[in-house]
Specification:
mainly alpha; 24 helices; 7 strands; about 575 residues
């Protein structure tokens, strides 16, 4: 067994030249807490050295002083913490720079598109908080979903406090969220792996896979705009880090922040934290007894679960195919089960080895995945529980994909990349290059980075910008209910970017209706009023005005006959209904 003389010398300790002593375990039985210390790196070395040094000072054989060894165990944690503190201080600038660099690389690869997809809800709500005069019509299509989160109010307050333009505030917080995610991944990897290439392999792969679709759930690992789910994910991973670092109570504050930002994702993150705590704790059997009371609490009658929902709500739900687990394709099922198989194989491989921390982590991920997968399959099977479908239990995969990418990247760094520069270069080029190419194909008609102050040649974005600058704040618009799916539109939301009210759409608004069933009748009536949009003429637009109070439309050039058009760009026109 090696003796760490240089380390103790750095701490002001030393041994005279020529001093010798026998290094062996000679105490009858160490205290219980000493057994735990033996598992940490270098601890036994310090103990044996201290015991031997004490024997040299006393000029007696150390094996006669088993009691002194127990005293040495009391000194070990102090010495070890001093050494670890020095190492952390030296490593911090390197870690900070590396995570910042990979954050920048991940951001450049994934792109930035404010107002895209879900941002039609969140960005719109923030703008409504900043200017209550906006969105006098149909505001419930974004307000009601945000009643369970403080995200919009918090962002609006941040803009008020700092005086920063909203566009820049959202960009800064997007960067902060990405950095916190990668920082947490690095810290978790530090605890699970000893090799530095392994640790950075996990961070690099997560950064490259930011826009990896989470199979069947209609989610990316990270959205290309600021989303409360991204911030909540950062908080969840920070909580996981504190648990892996055996400072479990420090996981509570980030989990609380996650609950305030995105309750659904936070609940799934908290469940993983509980499983991780149990699998890594020696008192697993004792804590398992508490499950009975938790199960009893879950039996509280919830009659709303068995309500069938009205026709409008069911129609909106039918547009969300990802809510129906048993309609998933074979490759979506493969994407759900592959991480479970990965963690099962990893746990089986490690459980007989000395890498207990990584084995416990793999077991926690496996148990978390199996429990949630089983729960989703039970909940989404009977038609009587259709009201639970919008809770999207399969979105547990979002966190599991992060853990999968992190551990897979760490293993790749440990066994393949190692310290070979050319392998790292090839790895970064392949992973980041492929994801960048896919993003450019996905949003081919839009700038890859839609940064504040930069213009756009996208005709839809040009139309939205003109509407925002040249129409009254209380203007009420109608668009093709499927405009988000139009060629070249790239899923940019009218409400969020034009900052004007609009009739319900058939692409994004249904996701809100599934969560807020009372919106079903209004949504269904408006969608029915817009049926056949592409064949609408002046009379149809006048009917919309009479039925819903709509005064403005965004239409194709071919539909402008009789309308009072104020702007056009050769493909689209913004017109007022006479």
């Amino acid at each position: 067994m090696r003796v760490l003389l240089p380390t103790l010398t750095e701490l002001g300790w030393g041994t005279p030249a020529g001093a010798t002593f026998t290094v062996q375990k000679f105490w009858a039985g160490p205290p219980a807490w000493a057994t735990r210390l033996e598992r940490s790196n270098g601890t036994v070395d310090y103990v044996l050295y201290l015991a031997g040094m004490w024997g040299w000072v006393r000029r007696v054989e150390p094996r006669s002083h088993g009691m002194l060894t127990d005293v040495a165990y009391c000194v070990v944690p102090v010495l070890e913490e001093l050494q670890n503190t020095r190492l952390r201080r030296k490593r911090f600038p390197f870690e900070l720079g590396g995570v910042l660099l990979l954050t920048a690389l991940g951001f450049l690869v994934m792109g930035y598109h404010p107002g895209l997809e879900d941002d039609g809800i969140y960005l719109t709500a923030v703008k409504a908080d900043l200017n209550p005069a906006l969105f006098p019509y149909n505001a419930n299509f974004f307000r009601l979903q945000l009643e369970a989160t403080v995200f919009d109010r918090w962002m609006a307050d941040f803009v008020h406090w700092t005086g920063m333009p909203l566009a820049w505030a959202e960009l800064i917080w997007q960067w902060a969220a990405l950095f916190l995610i990668l920082w947490a991944v690095k810290k978790i990897a530090n605890r699970l792996f000893q090799e530095e290439p392994a640790r950075w392999g996990g961070v690099a792969l997560v950064a490259a896979m930011f826009t990896l679709p989470v199979t069947g759930t209609a989610l990316y690992m990270v959205d290309q705009h600021l989303h409360p789910r991204t911030l909540a994910t950062a908080m969840i991973l920070l909580a996981v880090w504190r648990i892996v670092d055996e400072k479990r109570w420090q996981a509570a504050p980030p989990l609380l922040v996650a609950f305030l930002l995105h309750p659904l994702m936070a609940a799934m993150g908290a469940s993983f934290c509980v499983v991780l705590t149990l699998t890594s704790a020696q008192a697993l059997r004792e804590r398992a007894r508490n499950w009975q009371s938790s199960m009893a609490a879950a039996a509280i009658p919830l009659g709303w679960i068995f309500e069938p929902g009205d026709a409008g709500w069911r129609k909106a739900l039918d547009t969300r195919t990802y809510d129906y687990l048993y309609r998933w394709t074979w490759y979506e099922w493969l994407g759900a089960l592959a991480p479970l198989g990965f963690f099962w194989l990893l746990w089986r491989y490690l459980r007989g080895r000395r890498e207990t921390r990584l084995a416990d982590f793999a077991l926690a991920a496996l148990v978390y995945g199996i429990v949630h997968q089983a729960l989703a399959m039970v909940v989404l099977w009977p038609a009587s529980l259709v009201r639970l479908a919008p809770l999207q239990p399969m979105r547990y995969l979002h966190l599991l994909y992060f853990l999968f990418a992190m551990v897979a990247g760490c293993l790749l760094g440990k066994f393949v990349l190692k310290r070979h520069a050319w392998r790292w270069a090839l790895f970064l080029i392949v992973t980041n290059g492929s994801m960048y190419t896919w993003q450019r194909l996905e949003f081919a008609a839009s700038p890859h980075l839609e940064l504040p102050g930069l213009g756009s040649t996208n005709p839809w974005l040009e139309a939205f910008a003109w509407v925002r600058r040249n129409t009254p704040e209380n203007a009420y618009f109608a668009l093709d209910p499927h405009y988000l799916e139009a060629p070249g539109e790239d899923y940019h939301n009218f409400r969020a970017l034009a900052e004007r009210s609009q009739l319900a759409d058939a692409v994004k608004d249904p996701s809100v209706v599934t969560l807020v069933p009372e919106l079903g009748p209004a949504w269904e009536r408006q969608i029915e009023g817009e049926e056949g949009w592409r064949k609408f003429k002046l009379g149809d637009f006048e009917r919309l005005k009479a039925d819903f109070g709509v005064g403005w439309v965004v239409v194709n050039e071919a539909q402008t006959g009789g309308l009072g058009c104020r702007w056009h760009n050769g493909g689209l026109a913004v017109c007022e209904i006479p």
